[in-house]
Amino acid sequence: MTGSTALLTDRYELTMIDAALADGTAHRESLFEAFARRLPDGRRYGIVAGTGRFLEALSRFRFGDAELEFLRAEQVVRPATLDWLADFRFSGDIWGYPEGEAYFPGSPLLSVHASFAEGVVLETLILSILNADSSVASAAARMVSVALGRPIAEMGSRRTNEDAAVAAARAAHIAGFAATSNLEAGRVWGIPTMGTAAHAFTLLHDSEADAFRAQLRAAGPGTTLLIDTYDIAEGVRTAVEVAGTGLGAVRIDSGDLPTVVQAVREQLDRLGAVRTKITVTSDLDEYLIAALSGSPVDSFGVGTSVVTGSGAPAAGMVYKLVARKDDAGDWVSVAKSSAAKASVGGRKSAARRLDSTRTAREELVFIGDGPGGEAEFEADGTLRPLSVPFVTAGEIDGSFLGADGVRLARKRNAAAMEELPVEAFRLGRGEAAIPTTYRG
Amino acid sequence: MTGSTALLTDRYELTMIDAALADGTAHRESLFEAFARRLPDGRRYGIVAGTGRFLEALSRFRFGDAELEFLRAEQVVRPATLDWLADFRFSGDIWGYPEGEAYFPGSPLLSVHASFAEGVVLETLILSILNADSSVASAAARMVSVALGRPIAEMGSRRTNEDAAVAAARAAHIAGFAATSNLEAGRVWGIPTMGTAAHAFTLLHDSEADAFRAQLRAAGPGTTLLIDTYDIAEGVRTAVEVAGTGLGAVRIDSGDLPTVVQAVREQLDRLGAVRTKITVTSDLDEYLIAALSGSPVDSFGVGTSVVTGSGAPAAGMVYKLVARKDDAGDWVSVAKSSAAKASVGGRKSAARRLDSTRTAREELVFIGDGPGGEAEFEADGTLRPLSVPFVTAGEIDGSFLGADGVRLARKRNAAAMEELPVEAFRLGRGEAAIPTTYRG
C-alpha cells in the first residue's frame, strides 16, 4: 500500500489540465459524477465496491520525482503544468454510495465537486477501481443469493491479474463471500483465508493414503481432504479410513456434481462420517450453484467466474462532467449531444424508497443537492438515504478505509440485499429490479 | 516495482508445503508445467504474455517480516515452515515460450524444475500473471491482424483494475498495439503514450471553438481534436476553421462508424485538410475493426474489449505437477485421473514446424528433454525451436526483464504472427490453427 497512484491515469487527463491551465478554465468549479447508464448483461441490480480502495489510492495520488521526471522527459505537459501537478492535493468534496450498497441505472455512485483540473485528474483511477471491484461484487452477490446461506469462498486469484486478485477477494467478501484463498487479501483487508491442498499434493505422494496422512498430521482431522484425484469412492473410503469419522470435510473438484455430491454424502454417512462436510469447487458460477440448491453441499469455492464478473468483467461505469460554473459564477449543466437523454446535470443525492415491508420499490435521485439533499423533499420514514460524504474539503473520512471499512461494507451489503425485491434474485436476464426516478 | 509478491498466493500452496516438509516429500525433485488444455472461445491461436512480469515478480518473491508475521498470527503454517519460507529463494530451473510467441493447446508455456515446495509455491503467481496477460495479448493480436497495418492504441485502463491496466497496456503492446493511454505503462515499460482530450474538455468551455483553441494553444496544430461532442459536421468545420488545414487528426467516438468516417473524410478533404487523419475510438473490438477495413480510418483506439480479453478474460492456463521423483530417485509421471487424456508427463520442449513458405504447420512437443531437447530429434531447417531458458539454478536471465524485454517480445510477436497460416486470422470460431503433436 505504498507508492504513488498518480500515473495510473490516462494521458489525456493531464493534457486536458495542461490546456485548461493555460486558458484559466482549469479552475472552473465543476461537478463530475460516476454512474452506470445501464446494468451489464440483463442484470437486475449491481453492488458498489471499490470506494474504500479509491480513497486509499487518493491519499497516495501524488506526483513525486519519478512521476514528474517521466512527464517532463516525455513532454506530456508544459513546465508550468508540472508545477501544478507537483503541488497537487485534492481539496474538493466527494460523496456517493458507500461500498456494499446496491445500485441501479443512473444511481449517482460517486460525485466529485472540485475545480475542473482536480476533478478530471481522478477520472481514470476512479473508474478503474469502481468498474473492476463493482464487477466482482455484483457477480459475487448473485452467487451468494443462490447459495441459500451456505458459505462461498473466493479462489480465483489465478484467473486474474495478481494485484486485481487481492482487490477481487475484497470485493467478493463485501458482497457476502465468506473467505478467500488469497493470502495478501487476508493480510491487507482482514478477510478470512482458506485452502488445504491441490491434486499436486496427492500426486506428489506414493499413494493417496500417504498424502492424506501427511495432510492430517500437519493440519489435524478438521482439515478438508481433496478426494477426486483418482477414484472418488475410493478417495472417500481412504479419507475416512485414514482420518476417522471426525474428518472435517471432503472437497470435490470434478464430475457431474449433483450426482457425485449425493453419492459422496451417502458414502460418508454409511461410513459413519455423518458430520464430515462436503465442499465443491468445480468451475462454479451462479447457475451451477443454483443447480446444487437441492444437493447436500455444505460450502462452495468459486474461482474464474467471480473474479471475471461472471460475463461482465467491467461494470460499465462512466465518469462525466455534469455541471460547471461559467465566468459569472453560475452553474451550467452540460452533456454531450449523444448522451443528452441519459445524462442528468446537477448536484445529486439519492435515496431508496421502501414499502411497508421494507422492500425496495424505487431509486430516487434528487437533483440540486449533495448528501442529505433528499431531506427537504420528504420526511417519510420509508425513504432510506443512500449518499454519504467520503471526502470533505480534501479530508478523507477514515471510516471507509482498511479492514474496518471492509467489515462495515459487508454488513451494509447484507442489509441492502435484504431490501431487494424478490424479482432481483432471478438469475435470468431482465430489467433493473426497481426503477430510477429523478426529482428536483 | 517494489514490495514482496510472496503473499499473492493461494493459502493452499503454503499448507501443502507445510505438510510436505513434515513428511519429507517437499524436497522431491518435481516438474511443473503451465499450459492451456484448450484455447478460449473458439480461438485459433493464443499469444503468450506475462513471462517477463513473472520473472520480475519472482525476484521479489520473498517472505519478509510483514508476510511472516501474518502467517504466524493466522497460524497458516507451523513454525518450522515459517523458517523455510523466510529462507526461500527459488533455486531451480524455469524454461518455456518467450513472450510474444504464439501458442496452441498443450504448448508447454512455462516449465518449472525444482523441489516440490519450490515449484508449488509459485503456482498462483505464475497463473495469475500468465492468464491475465496472455488473455489481453491474445485479444490484442486478433485486433492488430484485422487493422491491416493501421495503428491501434490501448485505452482501456478505466475498464480494468488499476494495476491490471498497466500490465494490460504492456501485453497489448507486445501483441502489436502501437501505444497506450496509460502513463504508468509508459514510465515502467517504455510504451509510447497517447491521448489529447475527452468530451469533458469541450463541455468545460463556453463553446467548442473555445475548447479547440485552448487545446491547439497548448498542444500545437499536430494534435487530435475530438469532434463529436455536439454535431459532428459542425465539429469538423470548427476544427479546421480554428486549427487550419494542417490539423493533425480528428477523433470520432460515436455514431455509425462506417457512415460517419466516410462523411468526415469527405468533409475534411473538401475543407482542404487532406492530410488530417481520422482516429476512431467507439467501443471497438476485433469485429468492429474488421468492419472498418474499407473505411478511411487512420488509427484506432480500443478500450474495454482488449483489457478484458474480448470475451475470454482469463486464458485458461493451468499449472500441473507432471512428474516427480520417487525415493529411489527415479522420475514418475503423474496425472489425476480425470485429466489423464489431456496431460502428458515428463520434461518438455517444443518447436514449430514450418513449411517451405515458412508457414507454421505443426506444434511439436518433445517429451523427455528441456530447452534444446528437440535438437536430437531432427536437424531440419524448418523446425523452429520455441523453448528457451528463463531461470537457471535460480539465476534469472535479465534479457527478459524491463522495457528491453518488452521491445524484444514485441519483435518476436511480429515474427510469430508472420508464420501463422491464413486460417489463423479468421475471426469466426474454430479449431486451433495448427495441431499439437507429442514426440518422444
Automatic annotation (TrEMBL), chains A, B:
Pathway note: Cofactor biosynthesis; NAD(+) biosynthesis; nicotinate D-ribonucleotide from nicotinate: step 1/1
Single GO cellular component term: cytosol
UniProt keyword Transmembrane, yes or no: no
Posttranslational mods: Transiently phosphorylated on a His residue during the reaction cycle. Phosphorylation strongly increases the affinity for substrates and increases the rate of nicotinate D-ribonucleotide production. Dephosphorylation regenerates the low-affinity form of the enzyme, leading to product release.
EC category name: ligase
InterPro entries: Aldolase_TIM, NAPRTase_N, Nic_PRibTrfase-Fam, Nic_PRibTrfase_pncB, Nicotinate_pribotase-like_C
GO MF assignments: glycosyltransferase activity; nicotinate phosphoribosyltransferase activity
GO term, biological process aspect, one: NAD+ biosynthetic process via the salvage pathway
Known catalytic reactions: 5-phospho-alpha-D-ribose 1-diphosphate + nicotinate + ATP + H2O = nicotinate beta-D-ribonucleotide + ADP + phosphate + diphosphate
The keyword Transferase is annotated on this UniProt entry: yes
Key words, A-Z: Glycosyltransferase, Ligase, Phosphoprotein, Pyridine nucleotide biosynthesis, Transferase
EC number, UniProt record: 6.3.4.21
Limits of the Nicotinate phosphoribosyltransferase N-terminal domain: 7-131
Top-rank taxon: Bacteria
Pfam family of the protein (one): NAPRTase_N
Role: Catalyzes the first step in the biosynthesis of NAD from nicotinic acid, the ATP-dependent synthesis of beta-nicotinate D-ribonucleotide from nicotinate and 5-phospho-D-ribose 1-phosphate.
Family note: Belongs to the NAPRTase family.
Protein name: Nicotinate phosphoribosyltransferase
